[in-house]
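Consider the following assembly input.
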Amino acid sequence: MEDIVKKRIKQVLKGDQSAFEEIVSLYQNRLYQVCYRMLGNRHEAEDIAQEAFIRAYINLHTFDQKRKFSTWLYRIATNLCIDRIRKKKPDTFLDAPVPGTDGLDHYSRLAHDSPLPEEEVEKMEQQERVQYEISRLPDKYRSAIVLRYIEELPLQEISEILDLPLGTVKTRIHRGREALRKQMKKL
Amino acid sequence: MKPCPEEIVQYMHDYLDGEITRRDEQILKEHLEQCPACQEHMDQLSRSVAFLKSASHIEAPEGFSARIMASLPKERQGAGVRRWFGRHPMLAAAAMFMLLAGLALFSNFNTSDQQLVVSTQPNLVVEGNKVTVPEGETVKGDLVVRNGELHIEGEVEGDVTVINGSKYMASTAVVTGRIEEIDRAFEWLWYTIKSGIKEGLSVFEGPGADDKEK
Ligand SMILES: [Zn+2]
């Protein structure tokens, strides 16, 4: 797959914009999923994933073609997500609920700052609960945990995506697992 | 009861990362068998991981890639046209042919092109619509005669092209280049396109570096 992607990249660099569509199709689900798990909101996830692809397009000439394209793309997306989380002000959480989002946004909007009462957590569907627990993880651990367990990437690749030493990535994943364990001791 | 070894929690994580040495794994295993607290800790970690892995796959919304394509910065002007011609050189030639044919039929061929046109070499003899390369003379460079009769008795150092006309070669005639006769308007057009196609395509393709985004 990387081969076809590299071919398309060359075409885009030659001015063939339409060749970018295949690149988007190949990675859109993975990128959107990371953004969704990081941000916990479908609208924001779409917004950021789209921004990530546009940035990739604009900066494609800076991509080192000897490297793995998905790593580069994930890196753009996770950086954008981390920025977005940092800029998020508490009043963002007061947005009206968005229809057709299965109630997931409601819980993630409340995020980790204000844990829900226990009985409400217990009423959650399994999938709601997963997103809720991820959103309660501290930002630093969340990106590493999402890349490890949602995207199922090897530690080495995560270290390249987050631009952190391998040891730091391991520490974050260990702490993320511990945080999760404490969040859901009663599971 | 003796306290748990300090590294035991680290061993749990190494185990979950799949990066534990056989020796450490042995220590971990032996400790967990005799320590319910650490066994519980390990179980909670494993359950947390399993819980994360149970997250369902999320797919990008409908129309996502189309929206991205629509919001990309516009291509440099003309890049699309250049690409199209680059991919379809024969269609490009045909399109150019049609264009030139149209122009030629409505202008050139009806009027001035009926007149004799000849490339200007000093030692050519022109009488009426008859052009002669006299015996013993050498014409240097390519010779083009349009709407006329060309008589070659001497020598031409170059190509000879006769368009819409005729050509007689005497036994003494010598032409060092190629000889081409083009009789009909469309053939002449093809000739024009053929000789212009390299130039034409290089115009369409442009220098590669130009196509890149800044
Ligand atoms: Zn113990």
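Chain B is about 45% helix and 15% strand. Ask yourself how this observation constrains the way the partners meet.
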